[in-house]
């Protein structure tokens, strides 16, 4: 099982034991079909305000210079170097 899939499973287990309060943002990992992280990760929306997004590598590590905070970061799909 890939690292993103393991993370996703742990988040889902926590949700089963906690009451979700609408005032908190939620981060659910965005995994590809093999269980690794997709390049763009985002927190949940807050009403009509989109949650912050950031770019990661396939292991979930944030990429240097990754924009975040405004929910509109675009992650390049091509590999850099």
From TrEMBL:
Keywords: Disulfide bond, Glycoprotein, Growth factor binding, Secreted, Signal. The keyword Ribosomal protein does not apply. CDD domains: TY. The keyword Signal applies. GO terms for biological process: regulation of insulin-like growth factor receptor signaling pathway. One of its GO terms (cellular component) is extracellular space. Disulfide bonds join 55-75. PROSITE patterns: THYROGLOBULIN_1_1 (PS00484), THYROGLOBULIN_1_2 (PS51162). GO terms for molecular function: fibronectin binding; insulin-like growth factor I binding; insulin-like growth factor II binding. InterPro entries: IGFBP-6, IGFBP_1-6_chordata, Thyroglobulin_1, Thyroglobulin_1_sf. Its main location: secreted. Residues 1-75 form the Thyroglobulin type-1 domain. It is found in: Secreted. Interacts (via C-terminal domain) with PHB2. IGF-binding proteins prolong the half-life of the IGFs and have been shown to either inhibit or stimulate the growth promoting effects of the IGFs on cell culture. They alter the interaction of IGFs with their cell surface receptors. Activates the MAPK signaling pathway and induces cell migration. This is Insulin-like growth factor-binding protein 6.
